[in-house]
Amino acid sequence: MLFKFLKYVSPTNYFNLKRNNNTIVFPDWDALPKNIQAQIKLNKAYSNIEISKLDAGYQAVQKGYIGTTKTINFKVQIPIEDEYRFIRTYFNKLWVYYTLLWRLITLHNPFKELQAFLKTKNVRQVNVFKEYISYFEWNNFKGELLKQQPKVSVIIPTLNRYAYLKDVLYDLEKQDYTNFEVIVVDQSEPFNESFYKQFKLSLNIIHQKEKALWLARNTAIKISNAEFLLLFDDDSRVAPDWIANHLKCIDFFNAEISSGTSISVVGAKVPESYRYFKVSEQLDTGNVLIKRQVFKTIGLFDRQFEKQRMGDGEFGLRAFLAGFLNISNPTAERLHLKVATGGLRQMGSWDGFRPKRWFAPRPIPSVVYLFRTYFGNTLTRYALLKAVPPSLISYKYKGNVKMMLLGYMLSVLLFPLVLFQVLKSWKLATIKLKRGAKIEIL
């Protein structure tokens, strides 16, 4: 982990882990091109220059550096004061106090903690996303991939959403890239085969009787013979250049995955990093183009996530650890309607941390299964301590600091219930861990 205090505020981020080749994602400052260094402010307030360079590597990734520069190999112990300086610089004040609280609760020396905390009290938070690295060559880039016109399979699982799927398919009819097919795995009841006759698309309709999202996606991937798989949701809207911009991104950055940004009509505000290209720390199967080679190398989606959440997060993490380059692509945007009926909503969950019933597990067991599989029990506990209390408020207030504070107060008042929910989720995740992953090889 880059700075140790990240375990409190961002415990289960992809970038906290070493990849299978024993490297991390953060570049070595000294090896960065001069034009990239010029766009990053080297913070010399740290106790030594090597820690300042470590901070600069963090900045580079957050600002959108994408390159093949050698990565950091840092083994120096970071003083507590520098850890607080880092957290104060890049995170909301709420999380600074939160970090101090957990340092004190976990019996770290209170005098040293308070001293370091107070010494850094004048450090101002910096918006690391405000001034990002631009790729000016993008607009005039004429790559070979679009000229070659490779076949793309657009894969759409659907369940009782014909009204929304209609607009999805009309958007696909308007695409300016034409060498694609659409594979729809329809799990609706009743199944309406005649619905698809109105569209002028190369359609492959699969009627799947079992309501299973990851089975649907895996089935479509196996059926496709295309070089590129474009995974899409049935409640989304996209522009005519959507497919073309996904392919252009793969070509421009020599990447294996293009993660289009998703603008949701409800929930947390749109992250500022969605404005520019950067190495992605997530994978959203509602809008992502993936080379077939990725599936051949690491397998299909883990069916341990069936009827639950985070199956795409697990796949993205698996791809990251395997060394594949996943780009957050702002030019392949979708509007995610997040409709309240059909789809995974109908299977029992709106959100990974918000169960529908009082005595249901919180979060959904697949979330804990993912965290424990890749990050271990300790970091999973930190993740739950951070994410469970805010989940007591409505999804529409997600990301609202005041409402998050209310969530923490509610978690104290409802502690016995919340503890029961979390322990139930932990127990069910343990069962999943004992069973092991259900990953089929392509």
Automatic annotation (TrEMBL):
<feature type="domain" description="Glycosyltransferase 2-like">
    <location>
        <begin position="153"/>
        <end position="275"/>
    </location>
</feature>
<dbReference type="InterPro" id="IPR029044">
    <property type="entry name" value="Nucleotide-diphossugar_trans"/>
</dbReference>
<keyword id="KW-0812">Transmembrane</keyword>
<feature type="transmembrane region" description="Helical">
    <location>
        <begin position="403"/>
        <end position="423"/>
    </location>
</feature>
<dbReference type="InterPro" id="IPR001173">
    <property type="entry name" value="Glyco_trans_2-like"/>
</dbReference>
<keyword id="KW-0808">Transferase</keyword>
<keyword id="KW-1133">Transmembrane helix</keyword>
<dbReference type="Pfam" id="PF00535">
    <property type="entry name" value="Glycos_transf_2"/>
</dbReference>
<keyword id="KW-0472">Membrane</keyword>
<keyword id="KW-0328">Glycosyltransferase</keyword>
<dbReference type="GO" id="GO:0016757">
    <property type="term" value="F:glycosyltransferase activity"/>
</dbReference>
<protein>
    <submittedName>
        <fullName>Glycosyltransferase family 2 protein</fullName>
        <ecNumber>2.4.-.-</ecNumber>
    </submittedName>
</protein>
<dbReference type="InterPro" id="IPR050834">
    <property type="entry name" value="Glycosyltransf_2"/>
</dbReference>
